[in-house]
Amino acid sequence: MQSSHPSSGTSSHTTTTKTLADLEKLTREHSSATLNHLDGFAKYWNEFDRIARTLIEANIINKAERDLYFWIGLPFTFRKLISQKLTTMEGAYHERLIPTWRDTIQAGRHVFNDPSVGRLIVLNISAG
Fold first, then answer.
1. What pLDDT shows up at residue 92?
2. Which terminus of the chain is more solvent-facing, meaning fewer CB atoms within 10 Å of its CB: N or C?
3. Interatomic CA distance for residues 106 and 71, integer angstroms
4. Are 108 and 41 in contact (CB under 8 A)?
5. For 58, which DSSP code?
6. For the chain, what is the domain count?
7. Is 27 helix (H, G, I), strand (E, B) or coil?
8. Does 96 reside within a domain?
9. Model pLDDT for residues 86-126, shown as the tens digit of each residue
10. In a domain? residue 2
11. Residue 77 domain flag
12. What are phi and psi of 16, to 5 degrees?
């Protein structure tokens, strides 16, 4: 069976071009989703990274914009918990700043590994 997609002849798999609209759609969908376990967080950051990396390499967004998009793609309650964690992890962090993508991931991992914080996530989601 032949593919209807044009091929360069160098690979049998087709590369999908990602757009800024794809990144905005992903962040919009995830910002209103429930995020209550590490697997869901990891799924988001992996999907986000696939799109954002392509956009950075194509000079469509820069790293600061990547950080902002990643941050706004997180549900508000989770952003608040990450801000609190970053404040305790890094003395220079201020909650009015957008953390880097990597710092957000690192703090998010800590948030999900803290049993008391996990309980707070469930309570905040239930109350919201």
1. 60
2. N
3. 13
4. yes
5. T
6. 1
7. helix
8. yes
9. 888 766 666 668 899 899 999 999 888 866 554 444 434 44
10. no
11. yes
12. -95, 130
